[in-house]
């Protein structure tokens, strides 16, 4: 297992994502993922499965200090008061007294960012989370969020895979001593059939998906949270720590990015204004 060290706190770099899993499936798969060896789990208020994730963690038998858990506040709860109340509700559903990382799920200009970050800081100071961060923030808003938060931000969780160049975001995060968590890291499974990734994988006896996840793990300051509804696939995703990509392999994968590489349609998300 590869860990990212953030100000003395170790975070498993490969986590288990739960987007699009309902409560029952999340409970089953989180428990299965724990058996496989995952110790980093990711959920969100907007996923509507925090209760199932909590059940899965209880069923796993893992001690609370033996796993790292992230959840996210959706933008309709960004007002002060609403945010704090929503986190209390998330903890009730998870049946926990704190999470390890709490993120603002998507930027919006409907509430001043200063107000939202003050509320996020308060939740951290109240002990409801160990760390705080952001998600889907572009570079200009990363800078603004860092400047407005009294407590250091740990993570920006964004879509990242071989077809989407996030080098500017990653460079910006590194300048702030922050980490990037890649969601949709296997591009909704399309990397499995990519000829470049298949050829690289053939050298190591690995699939295009495993090569992609290894590519992410070998980048400084990067974590990834692939999701799966299948124990077999979750196990295969975790089986990436017994090989290492060459510099030439890494460069070839970097060259797969394209202007229309985004897989997640952001049109459903709130609009934001840098002046907000």
C-alpha end-to-end distance: 40 Å
Report mean pLDDT, rounded to a whole number: 96
- Poorly predicted runs are none
Number of helical regions: 10
Give the SSE order as H and E letters: EEEHEHEHEHEHEHEHHEHH
Q: Nearest-angstrom radius of gyration?
A: 18 Å
Physical arrangement of strands within the biggest beta sheet: 3-4-5-6-7-8-9-10
Number of strands: 10
State the helicity in percent bands. Answer: 25-40%
Summarize the main sheet: 8 strands, parallel
Q: Tell me, what's the shape?
A: globular
How would you describe the overall organization of this protein?
With 276 residues, the chain is α/β, with parallel strands linked by helices. The protein has ten helices and ten strands. The chain has helices spanning 23-36, 50-60, 82-94, 113-125, 139-148, 167-175, 195-204, 208-217, 231-238, 247-254, and strands at residues 3-6, 9-12, 16-17, 40-42, 68-73, 99-104, 129-135, 155-159, 179-183, 222-224. Strands 3-4-5-6-7-8-9-10 form an eight-stranded parallel beta sheet. The chain has a two-stranded antiparallel ribbon with strand order 1-2. Helix 1 runs parallel beside helix 2, helix 2 (50-60) runs parallel beside helix 3 and helix 7 (195-204) packs across helix 8 (208-217). The radius of gyration is 18 Å and the shape is globular. The model has no long low-confidence stretch (mean pLDDT 96). Keywords: NADP, Oxidoreductase.
């Amino acid at each position: 297992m590869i860990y990212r060290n953030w100000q003395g706190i170790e975070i498993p770099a490969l986590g288990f994502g739960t987007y699009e899993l309902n409560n029952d499936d999340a409970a089953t798969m989180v428990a299965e993922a724990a058996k496989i060896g995952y110790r980093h789990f990711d959920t969100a208020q907007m996923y509507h499965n925090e209760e199932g994730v909590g059940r899965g963690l209880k069923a796993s038998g893992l001690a609370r200090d033996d796993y790292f858990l992230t959840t996210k506040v959706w933008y309709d709860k960004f007002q002060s008061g609403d945010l704090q109340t929503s986190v209390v509700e998330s903890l009730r559903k998870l049946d926990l007294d704190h999470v390890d990382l709490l993120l603002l799920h998507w930027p919006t200009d409907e509430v001043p960012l200063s107000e939202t970050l003050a509320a996020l800081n308060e939740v951290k100071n109240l002990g409801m989370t160990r760390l705080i961060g952001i998600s889907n923030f572009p570079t200009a808003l990363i800078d603004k969020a860092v400047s407005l938060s009294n407590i250091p931000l740990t993570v920006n969780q964004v879509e990242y895979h071989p077809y989407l160049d996030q080098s500017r975001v990653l460079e910006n995060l590194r300048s702030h001593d922050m980490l990037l968590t890649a969601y949709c890291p296997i591009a909704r499974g399309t990397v499995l059939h990519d000829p470049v990734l298949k050829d690289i994988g053939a050298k190591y006896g690995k699939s295009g998906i495993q090569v992609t996840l290894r590519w992410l793990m070998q980048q400084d300051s990067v974590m990834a949270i692939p999701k799966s509804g299948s124990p077999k696939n979750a196990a295969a995703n975790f089986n990436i720590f017994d090989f290492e990509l060459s510099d030439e392999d890494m460069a070839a994968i970097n060259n797969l990015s394209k202007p229309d590489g985004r897989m997640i349609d952001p049109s459903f998300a709130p609009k934001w204004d840098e002046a907000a």
